Known about the structure:
Blueprint: E1 2-6, H1 18-32, E2 36-42, H2 47-51, E3 54-64, E4 67-76, E5 84-89, H3 105-122, E6 129-133, H4 140-146, E7 158-162, E8 191-192, E9 195-196, H5 198-205, E10 208-211, H6 214-220, H7 228-233, E11 238-240, H8 267-282, E12 290-297, H9 306-317, E13 322-329, H10 331-343, E14 348-352, H11 356-365, E15 368-371, H12 381-387, E16 391-395, H13 398-403, E17 415-417, H14 422-437, H15 439-451, H16 457-473
Parallel strand pairs: 1-2, 1-6, 2-5, 6-7, 7-10, 10-11, 12-13, 12-15, 13-14, 15-16, 16-17
Antiparallel strand pairs: 3-4, 4-5, 8-9
Helix pairs in contact: 1-16, 8-11, 9-14
This protein binds adenosine-5'-diphosphate (ADP) and alpha-D-glucopyranose (GLC).
Amino acid sequence: xxxxxxxxxxxxxxxxxxxxxxxxxxxxxxxxxxxxxxxxxxxxxxxxxxxxxxxxxxxxxxxxxxxxxxxxxxxxxxxxxxxxxxxxxxxxxxxxxxxxxxxxxxxxxxxxxxxxxxxxxxxxxxxxxxxxxxxxxxxxxxxxxxxxxxxxxxxxxxxxxxxxxxxxxxxxxxxxxxxxxxxxxxxxxxxxxxxxxxxxxxxxxxxxxxxxxxxxxxxxxxxxxxxxxxxxxxxxxxxxxxxxxxxxxxxxxxxxxxxxxxxxxxxxxxxxxxxxxxxxxxxxxxxxxxxxxxxxxxxxxxxxxxxxxxxxxxxxxxxxxxxxxxxxxxxxxxxxxxxxxxxxxxxxxxxxxxxxxxxxxxxxxxxxxxxxxxxxxxxxxxxxxxxxxxxxxxxxxxxxxxxxxxxxxxxxxxxxxxxxxxxxxxxxxxxxxxxxxxxxxxxxxxxxxxxxxxxxxxxxxxxxxxxxxxxxxx
Length: 474
Ligand code: ADP
Ligand code: GLC
């Protein structure tokens, strides 16, 4: 199969979260089973761009409304990532330092998508499927089906994968003229509640819609930031395909970002050596369990309750536990987590920011990883943690529920709780302290988790089945 993935992120080129990890790994796994998957994303001004060689693949132009824009498609020269990687350069619009967060993000991502479709339209290479990820590529299925100038692509199947339905890319109808001329009878395919909603449009126009876990698909029918009815209506074309992890990048035996590599043969010593590095750097007590949180400090991750939850744990369990936080997000949460460093010195620390290397060291050196998420479409952290022998403590929701079995259940190896609340986290920390004290149980749980194969092998093949079915039925 010839597959083109369209995304705003792709590790190691540009990553803000799990979307980047998925798009950096899935195509590689698809290619390893005999397909030809390529990836296209905007050309941000990243280190990867500066450090690698590029060739110009195509130059074209688009009109964003009345604005004439040149675009250039460049290709990474060596395919070193395991797939062909293309970047779309649009001068002054896409070549920025950050991926998201600009006041003209609507214009940036609309122009990106238009350039991608314009490029495919004239390309000698025709994909068997265009695979869109999240709302940043959500207008593509509509454009391929209903924009007059792209009619040559209307038969090419499209798949939408929803990594997070909270963000939908809403734009006012006053911006509808950005798109190239389209069949006006189809305005309803762009609209949701009187705005252009790129995510809703993709759910309506894509041939197949997938979510990144089975439970998340169920949850979206109940809570989908306003799209609940649409999920109910379109349920026939939706299916859940659980994310995997890149076992080459996330392997404690070879991970170059770790102070000490280890495998299931020397887990105890390996994890202790990595924990020692963390405890020294962050002034923590190596003899006490180390619980870490890594992630975006936003409401979805329940980061706002972390300060109270951690305080309540220190109140109830005293010096019996350490916490280390790595994340960035809402300013008041960053501030509160930051100010607690002095208050609880010796058993608590926090790094506010994004740090890939430190995150790997934390997965390796921690004893437990806390994820109290209110919403978690899949979650990759818990799978990375398990591969590094770190016990996940997760709220039973979305992909966390699909990947972690509580130690109290048959074959269980993790700690689950039901509510994103101070009380549930506190209770779960109490359980973690007990597990930590029982070294036999802890090492048995570590062994069990590290054996689990969460790699992309199975899910990459499942996506191929989806594409094949679309191709045959086209
Ligand atoms: P989401 O995509 O919702 O943020 P995921 O669990 O799918 O959540 O993936 C998060 C990814 O981003 C993981 O690779 C995690 O290690 C990484 N990550 C999140 N925050 C940080 C941070 N502050 N520093 C380094 N890596 C981070
Ligand atoms: C999103 C979700 C996260 C998921 C990731 C990759 O960012 O919030 O749960 O793991 O996408 O699919």
